[in-house]
Write a structure and sequence with these properties.
Layout (H helix, E strand, L loop, with lengths): L5 H6 L5 E3 L8 H9 L3 E5 L6 H14 L5 E6 L8 H10 L4 E6 L3 H9 L3 E6 L2 H10 L3 E5 L14 H9 L6 E4 L5 H10 L4 E3 L1 H4 L8 H9 L5 E4 L7 E4 L2 H11 L8 H4 L1 H10 L22 H29 L1
Parallel strand pairs: 1-2, 1-8, 2-3, 3-4, 4-5, 5-6, 6-7, 7-8
Antiparallel strand pairs: 9-10
């Protein structure tokens, strides 16, 4: 049995699984491993310090795989934004065929990518945003439930509701994101109306993920309760691992203080240092509720093969058995 969907057909991959963009983690080592295992991986453009560095990272990835992969470009409002147009041009000139966009008003980037024959998946946290992206001309949607790491939006709608609600209205292929880490999740996503799953946190706990073993072990040790929501009062909610730094930041924020009062705790450089030195208490780092389903650190290929095998077995046994019982009744 082979699970084929509109997603696998559109992006030319073997399995309906994607590894989305992840700051500091979406590098050539992980993305090439995902591609070689038959799924779709995305380099994270803004992890690279310059557009020229991104060009080199794309070339490095191609040295490790001849399979399809893409690049994530996240657009965030900022006083001093990075040179998005230059990153976009680097992606186009490198001949990338798939881009994952996320964030704020990506229309000009979507138009430019589409003009060069690049397929675009846009990450959304609400049905209304998915419909807006569809009108914008994207080829596919990744819908992020409240369980996800990073920014789950401000509506707090979990995947069990958000995915089918989006599937009822969105016509382009759709990936389900947030809380996925095994074959049960893949089958559930397909049943809810998605064409595949997008995973972030689960791919962090793999052999090829470019983060310290101590961080990967922390994900195994944590359970589904081990996350915290930051920036709620600033309307920019972020789900991160629950540690002493996150708890202190939340305490200060809930006192009604401005963002500047916690900036020293939550700055990205500090979080990156923790990913490198392996200290889970060093700074803020993203992970989702799916930590409760992470029990080992396999290779990427082992993980993807296991998810697909579990999904196929579930479909062939448990679901078919349920049908047999129904027919017998």
């Amino acid at each position: 049995m082979v699970i084929k969907t509109r997603f696998t057909e559109m992006f030319g991959v073997d399995h309906p699984i994607a590894q989305g963009g992840m700051q500091w983690v979406g590098t050539a080592e992980l993305v090439s491993a995902v591609a070689n295992a038959g799924a779709l991986g995305f380099l994270t453009a803004l992890t690279q310090p310059t557009p020229e560095a991104l060009t080199r990272e794309i070339a490095r990835t191609r040295e490790m795989t001849d399979k399809p992969f893409g690049v994530n470009l996240t657009i965030l409002p900022s006083i001093t934004p990075p040179p998005y147009e230059e990153y976009r041009q680097a992606i186009i000139e490198a001949g990338i065929k798939a881009v994952e966009t996320a964030g704020y008003r990506p229309q000009e980037h979507v138009d430019a990518f589409k003009a060069h024959g690049i397929k675009v998946i846009h990450k959304c946290t609400a049905v209304r945003h998915a419909l807006s992206a569809e009108r914008m001309g994207v080829d596919a949607i990744s819908i992020d439930g409240f369980e996800c790491a990073g920014h789950p939006g401000e509506d707090d709608i979990p995947g069990l509701i958000l995915i089918p609600a989006a599937a009822d209205k969105v016509t382009v292929p759709m990936l389900a994101s947030g809380g996925f880490g095994d074959g049960r999740g893949l089958v559930a996503a397909l049943a809810l109306g998605a064409d595949g799953i997008n995973m972030g946190t689960r791919f962090c706990a793999t052999a090829e993920a470019p983060i310290h073993q101590g961080i990967k072990q922390a994900m195994i040790d944590n359970d589904e309760r081990a996350t915290e929501l930051l920036f709620r009062s600033y309307r920019n909610t972020a789900r991160v691992v629950k540690n002493s730094v996150a708890l202190e930041a939340v305490r200060i924020e809930r006192q009604g203080n401005p963002f500047e009062s916690i900036a020293h705790l939550v700055k990205g450089v500090r979080g990156r240092e923790g990913l490198i030195n392996g200290d889970p208490e060093h700074g803020i780092w993203s992970a989702g509720m799916v930590q409760g389903l992470i029990h080992d650190i396999p290779t990427v290929k082992e993980l993807i093969d296991r998810i697909v095998s579990e999904a196929e077995t579930l479909i062939q046994t448990r679901l078919n058995r349920a049908l047999d019982h129904l027919e017998a009744a």
